[in-house]
Amino acid sequence: MATLAPGAAPLTAEARERRFFFIMACVMAATIVAGFSLNIAMGRSSFAAPPVVHGHGVIFMGWLALYLAQAFTIASGRRALHIRLGKVAYVWIPLMVVAGGIIMLRSARVHGGPPFFALNEFLISNLALLVCFAGLALWSLRIRRHSGWHRRLMLVAVAVLTGPGLGRLLPMPLMIPYGWTASFLATLIFPAIAMVADKRRHGRVHPAYWWGTGIYAGTFVISMLLAFSPLGYAITERIVAGTPGAERPMHAFLPPGFTM
Predict the structure, then answer these.
(1) Which of 44, 82, 208, 236 is the most exposed place for a label (fewest CB within 10 A)?
(2) What is the rounded distance in angstroms from the CA atom of residue 62 to the CA atom of residue 67?
(3) CA–CA dist 181, 65 (Å, integer)
(4) 122: which DSSP letter?
(5) C-alpha–C-alpha distance, residues 226 and 237, integer Å
(6) What are phi and psi for residue 50, nearest 5 degrees?
(7) pTM recorded for the entire structure
(8) Cα-based distances in Å from 171 to 4, 46, 89, 179, 184
């Protein structure tokens, strides 16, 4: 086992917790990057995309960089820099909602979204979860003086964003028609790990995790109920009407010529 260097002071409970959140930030960011990198490596996507797609990528990867920077600055004791960088998030989060909404609508209309997901769930639940991320992240910022709530709500918010990365790592063709639900359930591993860490460190799970994860799960359930309701189908059909996206089946399917 590693031991402290001679004369080195043991880490305080607060320092250990900050280090834990930095490690979790690195793991979640790596998961997202790995998912998109795998897509490029397997030829399922390329850099030959319209500017709007690149803009979306820059904005979302920029958020990951900001989140990692924030986790690092507070873990290394640079509180003043952490506070200054945090102000950027107030602008960046709404920008992500706009950019994400645009790219989701474009994807649904141009090619009907990923075929492994039902079009209605991809469109409606996806948009709802993006808003859920924004709500949790902004709530976290508003109560930043309560560091226990702040860092835990932000962790749950970023866990929402791991869905697209995990969705590219999981064998989605084998999960039809439950791929969307499977990717959601996979994202819960990050709050679950954090809850276990809380229980071991403090003897209880911080209420921020229950609230944050509960809101996330509730948003998912409500969005799926809406997506598969008559209203959800009508909204989806209205959005893609007259576009190539309307030509694909509403349900999840294997594209022609796809082999496993």
Answers:
(1) 44
(2) 9
(3) 27
(4) I
(5) 14
(6) -60, 155
(7) 0.91
(8) 43, 20, 33, 9, 14
Q: What confidence category does residue 27 fall into, taking pLDDT thresholds of 50, 70 and 90?
A: very high
Structure tokens at 3: 């031991």
Percent of the chain at pLDDT > 90 equals 85
**Alpha carbons 129 and 8: distance in angstroms, whole number:** 45
User: What is the pLDDT averaged over residues 164-173?
Assistant: 93
* Amino acid identity at 240: V
Residue 96 to residue 102: CA distance in whole angstroms: 10
Give the pLDDT confidence of 37-84 residue by residue, as tens digits.
887 776 666 566 789 998 999 999 999 999 999 999 999 999 999 999
Copy the structure tokens of residue 241.
């009407």
Write the CB contacts of 29 (distance below 8 Å, at least 6 apart in sequence). 64, 67, 68
Length of the chain: 260
C-alpha 111/C-alpha 130 separation (Å) is 20
Cα 163 to Cα 63, 76, 157, 160, 187: the distances in Å are 15, 29, 11, 6, 6
- Cα-based angle 247, 171, 100 (whole degrees, multiple of 5): 55
CA gap 211, 218 in Å, rounded: 10
Q: Is the pLDDT of residue 240 over 90?
A: yes
The CA-to-CA distance between both ends of the chain, in Å, stands at 44
Task: Identify the DSSP state of 204.
Answer: S
Mean pLDDT of 98-125: 96
